[in-house]
UniProtKB/TrEMBL annotation, chain A:
PANTHER family: ARABINOSE-BINDING PROTEIN-RELATED (PTHR43649). Pfam families: SBP_bac_8. Belongs to the bacterial solute-binding protein 1 family. It comes from the Bacteria. This is Extracellular solute-binding protein.
From TrEMBL, chain B:
It is a multi-pass membrane protein. Its main location: membrane. PANTHER family: ABC TRANSPORTER PERMEASE PROTEIN, INNER MEMBRANE ABC TRANSPORTER PERMEASE PROTEIN YCJO. The chain crosses the membrane at residues 21-47, 87-107, 119-139, 171-193, 214-236, 273-296. This is Sugar ABC transporter permease. It comes from Occultella glacieicola. Pfam families: BPD_transp_1 (PF00528). Residues 83-295 form the ABC transmembrane type-1 domain. Keywords: Cell membrane, Membrane, Transmembrane, Transmembrane helix, Transport. Belongs to the binding-protein-dependent transport system permease family. It is found in: Cell membrane.
Length: 425, 306
C-alpha cells in the first residue's frame, strides 16, 4: 500500500512539474475584437523594435480612442532579438495581432509563409482616397496582393549645419558640381564636409551616388539585370573612392553620434533619413535655424528627375492572430489623414499621407518637393537588395569606407555573391 | 510491519544491486530533473545539430541539405579569419589576464592590507562585457582618449587606427578584456596562495631558496591545481568571447575582428542563415569541448604524476 502511494505521489509530482513547465503563459485573452467583435473595444497585442517610440504610440492610443482598437505596447530595443522573437512567435498559438517589420526580403519571407494578413482592400481604398501613393504600394506588393501598411516613410536627404555653411560662405548646392565645390571649399578650410559610417549605414553613399548617376542601373542591381561590375556602377564607386581620397568624409573610426558631430560642426553635412530630424531636435537643435535640409543633387546633370531614396517600414497584421479583424480595422485607420497627422505631430516626422499635417516646416517642404514633379523616388538599398547580396555588400562597403581600397575588388566580391544568388532565384 | 532499515532499503552500496521495491517510484522522483536536463540541454543541442544540416531562415520548415553548410563554412575566408581571431583570443587571454592575475596575486601575497591592493583590479569585473566594450571604444576610437593622450605627450602611436585595422583591433580588445578579467584571476590565485601550507616553503627558505627560485620550484607547482582551473576557465571563456567585441567593433570593420561566437550570432540572427549559424555553433562546441578535455586530461595526468 505504502509502495503504491509513494509511486503515485512520485508520478503525480513528475506529471505536475512537466505540465507546469509545458503550459504557456497565454491567458487566452482574445479581447473583444475578434471576428465580428467591436474593434473599438479591442486591445491589440502590438510589438515593435522601436522601444523608444512608446510615447508616440501612447499618443496614437489617445487619437484612436472611440474610433478603432487600442495598442498594448511591447517594445524591443535590440532589432536582432526582436526579429528572432517575432519569428518564434509564429511557431506558437500566441501570434502578434500587430507588429512592425521590414520591407524587402524580410517581408517577402513572411508573405511566402502566409504569416501576414493581406491588406489589398485597405490599400485600394487608401489609394483611391489619396492617402498614399501607388509607388509606395510597390514596397508592399507580392504577386499582385498587398500585405501590411506603412508604419512610416523616410526620405534620405542632406542635413547641414547652417553656421558652418555661413562661416565658409557656402550656399545650398543645387547641382552636383556645386555640391563638390562646396565640399572642396570646406576641405580647403580644414573643415570635414561629410559624415559617413562603416557599420549600419555603410552603404548609403554607394546608394546616393549611383541613384543620382543612373537610377535605372540602381534599380537593376535589385533584380539582377545589372551587374555590380558594369561600367556605370564602377564609375559610381570611383566617384565615392575619389571623395574619400580627397578628404570629404570624417574618419570612420570616430564613433561619436552623427547628430552630435553635426551639432558641434565637426562635420558640415550628414546624409540621413528624415528620422534624423528627431535626433537633432533631441539635442536642442532648431530646424531651419541651426540646421537645414536639402535634397542631394543628381550626379548626372542629364537626368530629368532628381533621385530621392525612400525607406518605409511596415505595420503588419499577424494572419490568424486573435484580433486579426480588429487589427485590420486599425491598419485602415492608420492610413488616414487623422491618424497620420497625429503621428506626424507626435514624432515630429514626415508622413506617407500627403494630406497629413507636417508641423516641421523643413520636413513639410521636403515632403512636398519629393512627392511633386521633378523627383524620382527609389527604394533604399538595404530593402531593395536580396538579403544574401546585401550581407556581402555591407561587409564590403564597411571595409571600403574603412580602408578606401580598390573599388573594383569590392564590386567583384559583391557580384560573385549576386551571381550565386541569381543563379538560384 | 516495521519501517525498512537502510540496509533493507538497499541504501548501502552493494555490487550488482538487485532492483529494490522502490525502484519504480524512484524513477518518478528523478524524472522531473532528468526531463528538465533533457529539455533545456540535450534537446537544444540535438536540434542545433539537426539544423546545421538544413537550410533554414527561422520561418517555415528547415530543408535538409546534408553537409553543405559545413562546406560553405570552411570555404568562407571570413570564417577562417574568425578561427584565427579566436586563436588570438585564447593565447592572449591565457598570457595576459591569467599571467597578470598571477603577478598581482604573487606581488600582493603576504602584504599587509593585500585586499586593498587587489580591490581596484577586481572592480572592472563587476561590469558587463558590453559596458566594458562601450567604455573602451570611447578610449580607442580614432582621435579618442588614447590617441589624444599619446599626441599630447608626443608619444608614438597617436596615428594608429586602434579599432579599424586588423589584427590590431583584436589585440587591443584583448587588452580591454585583460583590464576586466585580471582582477578575478588575481583573487583566485590569491586564494590558492593562501591555501599553500607554510611548512614546505619554510623548509625551502631554510635550504636557501628565495625570490623567483622559491616561486618556480615551490609555489608554482603547489599552485598547479588552481592554475589548472583558472587556465581551463580562461580557455573556455576566450573561445566563446562575444560581449566585449560586440560592444567595440561588432566584428568589423567588415568581418575582420569576428570570433567564432560572433560569426555564429551574425550568421544566425543577423543574416538569418540559421543552418550555417548552427554549423558554426557546433564547430565552436566541438572545439571548446575538445580543448577542455585535452587540457584537463593533460593537466590532471601531470598533477597525478607529481
Amino acid at each position: 500500500m505504502r509502495k503504491k502511494t509513494t509511486l503515485a505521489a512520485a508520478v503525480l509530482t513528475a506529471a505536475a512539474l512537466t505540465l507546469a513547465a509545458c503550459s504557456g503563459g497565454g491567458d487566452g485573452d482574445n479581447g473583444d475584437g475578434g471576428e465580428g467583435g467591436d474593434p473599438t473595444e479591442a486591445v491589440l497585442s502590438f510589438y515593435t523594435d522601436k522601444a523608444a517610440w512608446e510615447p508616440s504610440f501612447d499618443d496614437m492610443n489617445a487619437a484612436s480612442e472611440g474610433t478603432t482598437a487600442t495598442l498594448d505596447f511591447t517594445g524591443y530595443s535590440d532589432p536582432t532579438a526582436y526579429d528572432a522573437f517575432i519569428k518564434q512567435s509564429f511557431r506558437t498559438d500566441d501570434k502578434p495581432d500587430l507588429f512592425t517589420w521590414h520591407t524587402g526580403d524580410s517581408l517577402a519571407q513572411l508573405v511566402e509563409e502566409g504569416l501576414v494578413a493581406p491588406t489589398t482592400e485597405i490599400w485600394d481604398a487608401a489609394i483611391a482616397n489619396g492617402d498614399v501613393t501607388e509607388e509606395l504600394a510597390e514596397n508592399y506588393t507580392f504577386e499582385g496582393e498587398q500585405y501590411c501598411v506603412p508604419l512610416n516613410v523616410v526620405y534620405w536627404v542632406m542635413y547641414y549645419n547652417k553656421a558652418v555653411f555661413a562661416e565658409n560662405g557656402i550656399e545650398v548646392p543645387t547641382t552636383w558640381e556645386e555640391f563638390m565645390a562646396a565640399g572642396q571649399t570646406l576641405v580647403d578650410n580644414g573643415q570635414v564636409p561629410l559624415h559617413q559610417m562603416n557599420i549600419i549605414f555603410e552603404f548609403v553613399w554607394f546608394q546616393a551616388i549611383l541613384a543620382g548617376l543612373d537610377p535605372d542601373a540602381y534599380n537593376g542591381l535589385s533584380d539582377g539585370s545589372v551587374s555590380y561590375t558594369d561600367p556605370v556602377v564602377v564609375e559610381a564607386m570611383n566617384i565615392w573612392h575619389d571623395m574619400q581620397s580627397d578628404g570629404f568624409f570624417i574618419d570612420p573610426g570616430v564613433t561619436t553620434d552623427p547628430q552630435t558631430l553635426l551639432q558641434t560642426g565637426e562635420v558640415a553635412m550628414a546624409y540621413f533619413g528624415t528620422f534624423f530630424t528627431g535626433q537633432l531636435t533631441d539635442l536642442g537643435m532648431v530646424s531651419d535655424t541651426d540646421y537645414g535640409i536639402f535634397t542631394l543633387p543628381n550626379v548626372s546633370a542629364d537626368l530629368d528627375d532628381t533621385s530621392v531614396v525612400v525607406e518605409t517600414g511596415p505595420l503588419c497584421v499577424g494572419a490568424g492572430s486573435a484580433n486579426e479583424a480588429a487589427a485590420l480595422d486599425y491598419s485602415a485607420w492608420w492610413m488616414g489623414v487623422d491618424a497620420q497627422s497625429a503621428w506626424s505631430e507626435s514624432r515630429g516626422d514626415v508622413s506617407f499621407n500627403p494630406g497629413a499635417t507636417v508641423t516641421d516646416t523643413a520636413l513639410a517642404t521636403v515632403t512636398e518637393q519629393v512627392n511633386g514633379d521633378g523627383f524620382l523616388q527609389l527604394r533604399r538599398y538595404l530593402e531593395a537588395t536580396p538579403t544574401p547580396i546585401y550581407t556581402v555588400a555591407s561587409e564590403q562597403f564597411g571595409a571600403f569606407v574603412t580602408n578606401n581600397g580598390d573599388p573594383m575588388a569590392v564590386l567583384e566580391a559583391i557580384q560573385a555573391e549576386a551571381d550565386a544568388y541569381w543563379a538560384e532565384n | 510491519m516495521s519501517l525498512p532499515t537502510a540496509r533493507q532499503a538497499d541504501l548501502v552500496p552493494q555490487q550488482r544491486r538487485p532492483k529494490n521495491q522502490f525502484w519504480l517510484s524512484s524513477i518518478g522522483f528523478v524524472a522531473p530533473g532528468v526531463l528538465l536536463v533533457a529539455v533545456v540541454l540535450y534537446l537544444p543541442f540535438l536540434w542545433t545539430t539537426y539544423i546545421s544540416f538544413t537550410e533554414y531562415n527561422g520561418l517555415g520548415d528547415p530543408e535538409f541539405i546534408g553537409i553543405e553548410n559545413y562546406r560553405d563554412m570552411f570555404a568562407d575566408p571570413a570564417f577562417l579569419n574568425s578561427v584565427l581571431n579566436t586563436l588570438y583570443w585564447v593565447v592572449g587571454t591565457i598570457a595576459l589576464p591569467v599571467g597578470l592575475g598571477l603577478l598581482i596575486a604573487v606581488l600582493s601575497h603576504g602584504l599587509p592590507n593585500a585586499t586593498l591592493f587587489r580591490l581596484p583590479f577586481l572592480i572592472p569585473y563587476a561590469l558587463s562585457g558590453v559596458a566594458v566594450g562601450v567604455i573602451w571604444s570611447f578610449v580607442l576610437q580614432t582621435n579618442g582618449a588614447l590617441s589624444q593622450a599619446l599626441e599630447f605627450f608626443n608619444l608614438p602611436g597617436s596615428e594608429l587606427r586602434w579599432l579599424l585595422d586588423a589584427p590590431l583591433n583584436t589585440f587591443v580588445m584583448i587588452g580591454a578584456s585583460t583590464w576586466q578579467g585580471a582582477g578575478v584571476n588575481a583573487l583566485l590565485f590569491g586564494i590558492g596562495l593562501q591555501s599553500i601550507p607554510k611548512e614546505p616553503l619554510e623548509a625551502a627558505r631554510v635550504d636557501g631558496a628565495s625570490g623567483f627560485t622559491l616561486f618556480r620550484t615551490m609555489t608554482w607547482p603547489m599552485l598547479a591545481p588552481l592554475t589548472t582551473v583558472v587556465v581551463g576557465l580562461s580557455i573556455v571563456g576566450s573561445l566563446k568571447t562575444f560581449d566585449i567585441i560586440w560592444g567595440m567593433t561588432k566584428g568589423g570593420p567588415g568581418r575582420v575582428s569576428e570570433t567564432l561566437a560572433l560569426t555564429m550570432y551574425k550568421e544566425t540572427f543577423v543574416n538569418n542563415a540559421y543552418g550555417l549559424g548552427a554549423a558554426v555553433a557546433l564547430f565552436l562546441t566541438v572545439v571548446t569541448v575538445l580543448a577542455s578535455i585535452l587540457y584537463l586530461r593533460r593537466q590532471l595526468a601531470h598533477s597525478r604524476s607529481i
